[in-house]
Amino acid sequence: MFDTLLDAVQPVRQARGRPRKRPGKLHADKGYDFRKCRQALRKRGIISRIARRGVESRQRLGRHRWVVERTFAWLNRFRRLRVRYERRDDIHLAFTKLACALIAFRAVKRFC
Questions:
Q1: Which of 16, 40, 73, 97 makes the best surface tag, with the fewest CB within 10 Å?
Q2: In sequence order, what DSSP letters do the residues of 45-103 get, joined into one string?
C-alpha cells in the first residue's frame, strides 16, 4: 500500500519551471519504520524523515505533524464533514471547500 500511495502523489507545483514529480522529503511517524518503506522512498529519490521505534523521541517529528492534526481538528468541528451524510463526492467536496473557506475567513478576521 505504501508504494501505491507514493505513486499516487500529484506533481508538486513550483513558482516557475517544470513541476516536480515527487516531493523532496517525507515526514512520517514510527508506524512507517520498516525497511520496505525506507527502500521505496530511496528508490524514488525522496528523503525519508521517519521516526525510529524505540530510539527517537516524539518531540522532533511532533512539530511537523501538529500542523496536519490541528487542521483535521478544525475540519472536524463541522459536523457534516465529521459524519459524512452525503453520498455524492462532489457535494462532500463542496462542503469541505466551504469549511476551509470559513476557517481561512475566521483566521483572517482574527488578525485584522
A1: 16
A2: TPEEEEPPTTTS-HHHHHHHHHHHHHHHHHHHTSHHHHTT--SSHHHHHHHHHHHHHHH
Distances (CA, A) of 62 to 24, 74, 79: 19, 18, 27
Distance (Å, rounded) from C-alpha 19 to C-alpha 58?
33
Please indicate, yes or no, whether the overall pTM of this predicted structure exceeds 0.70.
no
Alpha carbons 100 and 16: distance in angstroms, whole number: 26
Which of 26-35, 37-46, 58-67, 68-77 ranks highest by mean pLDDT? 37-46
Q: Kindly report, residue by residue over 73-99, the tens digit of the pLDDT.
A: 888 888 888 777 778 888 889 999 999
- C-alpha cell recorded at residue 88: 455524492
Cell of 63: 512539530
**72 touches 93 (CB < 8 A):** no
Residue with cell 464533514: 81
